[in-house]
Design a protein that fits this description.
It contains 9 helices and 12 strands. It is an alpha+beta fold and 360 residues long. The chain folds into 3 domains: 100 residues, OB fold (Dihydrolipoamide Acetyltransferase, E2P) (Beta Barrel), CATH 2.40.50.140; 123 residues, BirA Bifunctional Protein, domain 2 (2-Layer Sandwich); 75 residues, no CATH class.
């Protein structure tokens, strides 16, 4: 039995100077075509990036050139050829795969394409198509490098989270999606049962029951990258279905849980190319409420609450004096440089935060 030959030997965006002289097989989408008469160039794209295909009578058979004539954007093709350096003046050192080209000897169209409704290959500075159009033709929109990068990054982050938790002896355990309703805060989505008419399954808000069962059963550390469902109105930071990392552990302290979460966050930022120094600042609930008036303060702005009780004079408003007389405190934020701001200007400064607070 002869060994099976893969349709692709390399990805387009993976070709480098070290591949010069190698015969390669590629598959991808036609990104852009430049027909200069006797010579033609095609940028071929896959999820790893672009590479230039060169069609020249010196190395490309006439019948291959003929097949390549007239191919349009987003046509799916299979290519054979040899990797060579591009001319010095045509190299793009900012993108390694653009330092080389593939001199084509074989070419096959496997998926002809009509002119795309929305462009995938955009020129620099060109605006995106309208959002409604991009959502309607999502299959084309998802070919954009920006969105493909997001999908690839999400995959990498999920894998990195798994590595970190596995290193801390957590097991990844799947739990059922169809379950019985549980008395939690949000409403469940219901799925009717065909086998038991009139009865329903619920989609889990989070796998709470199974967490408890697994802990009692002795699975003392487990995690899930769990899909959660909540039949509730949209919020600024949540939609009806979303993904969260669930971790559950026995025989641990609050400090242990904080350390696990910190390790995950540091690793995820590192995977995304950013260095985050551990150890994170830790605030007790009472300290956070005292300094910021909220248990999840944004420390980037530094606006801390100050005790102003000692500044209350006899000409203060009655409700302020009454609060002080009753043992209360007057507290506020020191906003330097805003002492001369008018009420109209102040309202303009705070309109955005108020709108965001209402939306949340």
């Amino acid at each position: 039995m002869t060994a099976r030959t893969s349709l692709r030997s390399h990805r387009c965006g993976s070709l480098r100077k070290e591949h010069v002289g190698q015969a390669v097989r590629l598959g991808g989408w036609v990104h852009r075509v430049r027909d200069l008469g006797g010579v033609m160039f095609i940028d071929l794209r896959d999820r790893d990036g672009l590479v230039q295909l060169s069609f020249d009578p010196r190395w490309t058979p006439a019948e291959v050139q003929l097949r390549a004539k007239g191919v349009g954007a987003e046509t799916v093709v299979l290519v054979e050829g040899r990797v060579e350096l591009r001319p010095e003046s045509a190299r793009d050192t900012a993108l390694a795969s653009r330092e080389v080209e593939v001199q084509v000897t074989g070419f096959r169209v496997v998926g002809p394409a009509e002119t795309p409704v929305i462009p995938v290959a955009r020129k620099e500075g060109e605006d995106l198509a309208a959002e409604e159009l991009r959502l309607k033709y999502r299959i084309l929109d998802l070919r954009r490098p920006e969105l493909q990068f997001n999908l690839i990054m999400r995959h990498r982050l999920a894998q990195r989270a798994r590595q970190v938790l596995s290193a801390h002896e957590f097991l990844e355990i799947e739990t059922p999606i169809l379950t019985k309703p549980t008395p939690e805060g949000a409403r469940d989505y219901l799925v009717p049962s065909r086998v038991h008419p009139g009865e329903f399954y619920a989609l889990p808000q989070s796998p709470q029951i199974y967490k408890q069962l697994l802990m009692v059963a002795g699975m003392d550390r487990y995690f899930q990258i769990a899909r959660c469902f909540r039949d509730e109105d949209l919020r600024a930071d949540r939609q009806p279905e979303f993904t969260q990392i669930d971790i559950e552990a026995s025989f641990v302290s609050a400090q242990d849980v904080q350390d696990y979460v910190e390790a995950i966050l540091v690793a995820l930022w590192d995977e995304a190319g950013e260095t985050v120094a551990g150890r994170f600042p830790r605030l007790a609930w009472r300290e956070a409420m005292e300094r910021f008036g909220i248990d999840k303060p944004d420390l980037r702005f530094g606006f801390e609450l100050r005790d102003l009780t000692g500044f209350v004079q006899d000409d203060a408003a009655d409700f302020v004096k009454g609060a002080r007389a009753g043992g209360g405190r007057v507290r506020g934020i020191l906003a330097g440089g805003l002492g001369e701001v008018s009420r109209k200007e102040f309202d303009g400064l705070t309109a955005g935060p108020r709108r965001r607070a209402r939306a949340a």
